[in-house]
Amino acid sequence: MPESPALYPKIESFDQGYLKVSDLHTVYYEQSGNPTGKPVIYLHGGPGGGVSSHDRRYFDPSVYRIILLDQRGAGKSTPTAELKDNTTWALVEDIEKLREHLGIDKWVVFGGSWGSTLSLVYAQEHPDRVKALILRGIFMLRQSELRWFYEHGGASNIFPDAWDEYVKPIPENERDNFIAAYHKRLTGDNEEERIRCAKAWSTWECSTSKLYVDPVEVAKASEDIWALAFARIECHYFFNKGFFKTDAHVLENVDKIRHIPATIVQGRYDVVCPATSAWDLHKVWPEAQFEFMADAGHSAKELATTARLVQAADEYKTL
Ligand SMILES: CNCC(=O)c1nnc(C(C)(C)C)o1
Fold it and tell me: Which of ligand 1's atoms lies nearest the C-alpha of 47?
């Protein structure tokens, strides 16, 4: 797959660390770019997706102090794939603990997909700590969004071939609620079944995140450790409705952040987190910059999406 020319060059981190955030959880973080630069935190998707060195490249390393965080149970954070005490609200607290640990007052917050959910919720809880928001592939964890992608009748109509693989681990009599059926198996005692279901769940998402299926992305879904963390943590959050009290929690709290500079970038043909969520967010937040990328699906690695995200980060250098 061609790499976007908009990305900044590959760089190494200058600092890596582990922060104990509870009796059970320790989260991994790293810093790259300019140690005295303008802080930006990158919030990965999933939840459970983890960060990679690629995620450093949206930001000008001469200007930004780039912070990547593996959320609870994801990536290098430990315990791997742990679901106990793993909630949206715990992650928001972890981000604040990391900010204080690093001696940061305010930062730019960048997130796509679940990362957009977490970015929005963090900003709504701590608006005074957010200099700007850069959001991609809007996901607000509403039941309509979950039904679209994880139950029959939505994305299954666009990728019927990949869907037939996704349903295979689940018996016919449980196919009226895939999230519940997968949750039972992903949290069950049968290790072989856990891994088989984790790979099927993860392959479904990785096979549908770009306009042109990216074999590198799909191959990730066959890695036991990554697939277990991604599938277990995602399904745990979805089964628990994001730990929100109301279905439209994120939309209901947009007024808390309408003053914050923001850019929303949405792939027109995003099958994972369809455009309707980004449009709903735009309609209640007209102050935020908003752009549909005409030739893009869900992934931040779509060429047009990458370019627009880098442009947004460049724009916020002056803040
Ligand atoms: C609703 N979950 C989609 C999500 O947040 C996500 N993050 N990364 C991915 C891929 C690994 C499939 C690109 O999806």
Answer: 5
